[in-house]
Write the structure tokens for this entry.
Amino acid sequence: MPELNVPARVVVVGDALIDVLRDSEGSREFAGGAALNVAVGLAVLGVPTTLIAMVGDDADGATLRSFLDQYGVQLIATPGPLGSSRAVSDRTDGEPRYFFNDAAKARRIEFGTVERDALEGASLVVVSCFPFDDTAQTEALAACVTDPERRLVIDPNPRAGMLHDGPRFVRNFEALAARSLLVKVGDDDADLLYHITLDELRERLVDAGAHTVLATAGSLGASVSFANNELVSAAIAELDGTVIDTMGAGDATLAASVFTILTDGVPPDSAAWQVLLSDAMLTAAATCRHEGALLRQP
């Protein structure tokens, strides 16, 4: 593991919840949420990390706190008046179906003094699965992040069951994405938010002002558009063992990419971006060979 040359920790902002997986073999529960997965993934890679998320004062909240403590992630929790969020992935009939509890649908994050101080002191701010369709929350977040062009990484990661206003989500997300260091999007985002292809979404974000766009396409690998729409791509990595669960692949890709930027700086050319993508695909492939979304190293 290379020594990290970072002046301060990374702060991740977004969701923390209990993932419930149901299939023909029964039901299992995991600490999850895209932002939590990224925060824990960075901690696994050796990065000092803080997570800002809504967590209830209940048994699920205790599970989330214990899990974060286990990996050394500092939690700054917004209270959950309806308890902690839950997401159910029902795979009993083949294709997964997703359900969210009332807490997840009403999630919010408060940006008080503690949160503002943490964001101000962060070397990078990573935002994932944030309620961009809430304009007040989006504006509060934006006001807390100075120099977003050098410090802000965004993954919209919308969930249909938690999405209240798609067009508003798109407007607020794109406004902040245009001022960010890196934007990550996936093929699911392109379909749910825009009803267009991932390539079309990448081009749209670049046209809207995004400087660098990391696009993940599941089994088709990933690509990065940077520096006047120059494009590099990488296929998924081939590793020994069976692919067991792809749920954490995108979050592992983002965490690995942020790790490379922290250790080596923003890639200056296509060769360096190619190295970043290849390393991220290896991490994603290792993660997919285990159940749950915990980042695994190849």
Remarks:
- DSSP finds eleven helices and 13 strands in the chain.
- The mean pLDDT is 93.
